[in-house]
Design a protein that fits this description.
It catalyses: Couples ATP hydrolysis with the unwinding of duplex DNA by translocating in the 3'-5' direction; ATP + H2O = ADP + phosphate + H(+). The protein has 22 helices and 33 strands. The protein is an alpha/beta fold. Helix 8 runs parallel beside helix 9. The structure holds adenosine-5'-diphosphate and zinc ion.
């Protein structure tokens, strides 16, 4: 027997299959998808078996044997092997790179598989096991006969396979306290201390986080410790970040007629075992999630699995809660903040069928189920579904291919579908299902537009218009809450010398530096370059520096000063740490903080009953970006954030502050009119010959040397021009919108095409050529098929 193996070296020259002999003692263990060790040249490396075959055309005496097999069960399914190849071809990528993206990173690291006895193993399982070892058996040391003996118990889960990572041997602990069980109690005046002590004595040791969640401050904890009632301890925590958490009960709802109609259509596709793509277009709060939940229930009843995609899981804690509440332990949560070990645990639950639904962001589209019954992509228009680094892929396309393979429905849900998806639903490629009403009493708020041009004319130079100011004061007086959005982090946008007009720029990138007050420094948002805030102008030496533009940090300060209230700020700078999102959101909700201020990360999925006002401080931040999707993104953001208002009993109000009050993206967002926006945007796309009228490929050429970039760009242009038909359009080469990032000059070429059967061959050749070229001249070519941003 022979195996075709793809080796784990990311080099274009070895981006093909190599044949190895399967030694007899490994014949039963090796299957397509197995992770193996093979000798390659002078070294031993990891590889993946893509195919097992009886014969080979090669000279058998020259074929090297596979050395080891790493796991009991193959890590890849046949479907995923096939998918990875298809993706590599489409996105001009090395096959191994895609395989590595599909698998959890833990499988790339030095790890070994071991077998251990489970707690409820039978006597006979134990006896068999003990023949090999008392504690754990290293899988790669087993031969076929050994495995034959063990396999029945592995299948019955009496013997379990585990991965051991060198860096995860240490168990995770958190700080906490335990009672010293003294006979005396804290003084009767220290009510909080008495309460907390009772809690700790009743429930056993608690972590600081748990105690804080119960509403006790760190001060109370310290007082108990200082007074000797409790002692500090380290508490072992489980790796499942959601384990042990109590989820509020989310009941199954009786569907509204619109929901029922959508559900019935999808159910039919499930019952008929046919693949179909549905576009579930429903306004915010129209009950899309309820439809997802009931569709998934259907799928589970048929013994199949469901993949649930969300744009970013840290931003959707409420969604995860609803799924956990309905489906309990059947849910695996794939989270970008998971450690390698945690992520691997979740992956295994899926691969071994212990979890039946996987919920997660982009990479969750690779969930290793063997029997997918539906794939759902919530907020399908979100740009986070496209991976912006190698390997490039769009989760929507991957989902489509997987759903085709499994003959199951793909459901794309959104209040503001991508122009591409809506266009497909217009021509019947996708089946569109509409939810136009909210099932609850809540009305959809009608936003108001405030022209900041007029504000300026009337002498108000503040970033907060008079109208918004009035409403903020009104909400504060009524104890209601509000969400304010400013899509720009940092304190001030840039620094300018009032004397000579000099603006400090990043030395590595063609972009001005942003002032951050917390560390009193200037920072580059592209390369993380940082320098201390200067005291005088770097160009003319005058001490006349002025901060211009406003970021979330400054607004936070203004809000606190002006209204004398607490503000929760959410942006990249306040949410870096694990769990920070959830914590900020729960503080906002539980402590009824009047204002949640943030960048676009607050626009998604939040459902707070007491929020009755949403204010967009500057609706133009995205509109002004040099990208053909700028209008679309503006419309989406405004619509989405509007949906956060009025989720409770009180009607919500929304205000958009803008300098472009007549722009159609802003006008149609105000009118809540997706369809009119779509039609208008399509006119522009047609005229400017952009997606969905054309497909795009973005070529970015970069190097530290400007002359090399220009030469390479012009060469590449020539190659493409020669190979594509004259119906396609080539734009460039021209400098990228940001000409230099991290000291590298950048040029771009945009290809727009409708049909180019030979194109992918050309792209692969170019990629080949430039991966070699890179080694010679450090000039790199990046080929982005279906780019999300043309920047
Ligand atoms: P979306 O995902 O479209 O934003 P959700 O599914 O979150 O909407 O629904 C919004 C609110 O309406 C939620 O509080 C949900 O519990 C409630 N809801 C959804 N469907 C129904 C229904 N059929 N009957 C009553 N309430 C519903
Ligand atoms: Zn920089």
């Amino acid at each position: 027997m022979y195996a075709s193996v793809i080796v784990a070296i990311s080099n274009k020259n070895v981006d093909r299959l190599f044949t190895y002999k399967i030694p007899e003692h490994l014949e039963d263990k090796i299957q397509p998808g197995s992770r193996v060790f093979v000798s390659f040249g002078p070294r031993m490396i990891q590889g993946f078996v893509v195919e097992v075959k009886n014969d080979t055309d090669l000279d058998p005496s020259k074929i090297k044997p596979i050395q080891k097999v790493m796991d009991v069960y193959p890590v890849l399914t046949k479907e995923l092997i096939h998918l990875s190849k298809k993706l590599a071809d489409y996105y001009v990528e090395r096959h191994i790179k895609v395989i590595e993206a599909i698998l959890p990173a833990a499988l790339k690291m030095k790890s070994r598989s071991v077998l251990k006895l489970s707690d409820d193993a039978s006597t006979i399982a134990r006896e068999t096991f003990k023949k090999f070892d008392d504690e754990k058996i290293d899988v790669k040391l087993l031969d076929m006969n050994d495995l034959k003996q063990l396999m029945p118990f592995i299948n019955s889960k009496e013997i379990i396979e585990e991965k051991e990572f060198s860096q995860h041997t240490k168990k995770k602990t958190r700080r906490g306290i335990e009672s010293n069980y003294l006979d005396i109690k804290p003084s009767s005046r220290a009510v909080k201390q008495i309460e907390l002590l009772e809690l700790v004595e009743e429930s056993g040791p608690l972590t600081y986080e748990q105690i804080e969640e119960e509403g006790y401050s760190i001060g109370v904890i310290n007082a108990l410790v200082d007074n000797g009632f409790c002692k500090k301890i380290d508490i072992l925590v489980e790796r499942d970040p959601y384990e042990g958490r109590v989820f509020y009960q989310d009941e199954k709802k009786i569907l509204t007629p619109e929901q029922q109609h959508a559900f019935d259509k999808i159910k039919k596709s499930i019952d008929d075992d046919t693949h179909e793509t549905f576009l579930l277009h429903g306004i915010t709060g129209s009950g899309k999630t309820e439809v997802y939940l009931q569709v998934i229930e259907e799928v589970l009843n048929r013994g199949e699995n469901a993949i649930m995609m969300v744009p970013e899981i840290a931003l959707t804690p409420q969604m995860v809660q609803r799924f956990k509440s309905r489906f309990g332990d059947d849910v695996a949560v794939i989270h970008s903040m998971l450690s390698h070990g945690e992520r691997y645990d979740e992956w295994r639950k899926i691969r071994e069928g212990r979890a039946r639904i996987s919920i997660g962001a982009r990479s969750n589209v690779f969930a290793a189920f063997q029997n997918v019954g539906c794939i759902i992509i919530d907020e399908e228009h979100e740009s986070t579904y496209k991976q912006n680094e190698r390997p490039y892929y769009h989760a929507r396309l991957v989902a489509k291919w997987r759903a085709e393979y499994y003959n199951c429905p793909l459901i794309l849900g959104s209040a503001t579908p991508s122009i591409e998806s809506y266009a497909r639903s217009e021509v019947g490629v996708y089946q569109r299902l509409e939810l136009t009403e909210r099932p609850t009493e809540q009305t959809v708020p009608t936003p108001e537009i405030v022209s900041m041009v007029k504000e300026r004319e009337d002498g108000n130079t503040s970033i907060i218009s008079r109208k918004l100011d009035m409403k903020i004061r009104d909400r504060i007086s009524k104890d209601e809450q509000m969400i304010l959005l400013l899509n720009r982090r940092g304190y001030a946008n840039f620094l300018v010398c009032q004397n000579c007009g000099h603006v400090p720029m990043c030395p590595n990138c063609d972009i001005s530096l942003t002032y951050h007050k917390s560390n009193n420094s200037l920072m580059c948002h592209y390369c993380a370059y940082e320098e201390p805030m200067p005291t005088k102008c770097g160009a003319c030496g005058e001490h006349d520096l002025s901060l211009r533009g406003t970021g979330t940090q400054k607004i936070e300060e203004i809000l606190r000063d002006t209204y004398n209230v607490d503000v929760v700020r959410m942006d990249i700078d306040t949410t870096r740490n694990k769990g920070a999102h959830e914590k900020l959101l729960s503080t906002f909700e539980k402590e009824n903080i009047p204002i949640l201020l943030g960048t676009q990360m607050i626009a998604k999925g939040l459902d707070f009953k007491n929020v009755t006002l949403v204010g967009v401080l500057n609706a133009d931040t995205i509109l002004n970006l040099p990208d053909f999707r700028a209008n679309e993104r503006t419309f989406q953001l405004l619509t989405q954030v509007s949906g956060r208002a009025g989720r409770g009993d009180v009607e919500g109000e929304v205000i958009f502050q803008t300098y472009n009050e007549d722009h159609y993206a802003i006008q149609f967002a105000k009118e809540n009119d997706y369809r009119s926006f779509y039609l208008r945007e399509m006119e522009y796309r047609k005229l400017a010959r952009y997606s969905p009228y054309y497909f795009h490929v973005l070529f970015t050429i970069s190097s530290e040397y400007q002359d090399r970039v220009i030469k390479a760009a012009s060469d590449i242009h020539t190659v493409i021009q020669k190979d594509v038909s004259n119906r396609s359009i080539l734009i460039g080469p021209s400098p990228s919108p940001i000409e230099r990032i991290q000291n590298k000059y950048r040029f771009q070429i945009i290809l727009k095409y409708k049909s180019e059967p030979e194109l992918f061959k050309v792209l692969h050749e170019l990629d080949n050529k430039y991966s070699k070229e890179y080694q010679k001249t450090q000039t790199s070519l990046r080929i982005d098929v279906d780019p999300e941003y043309i920047m």
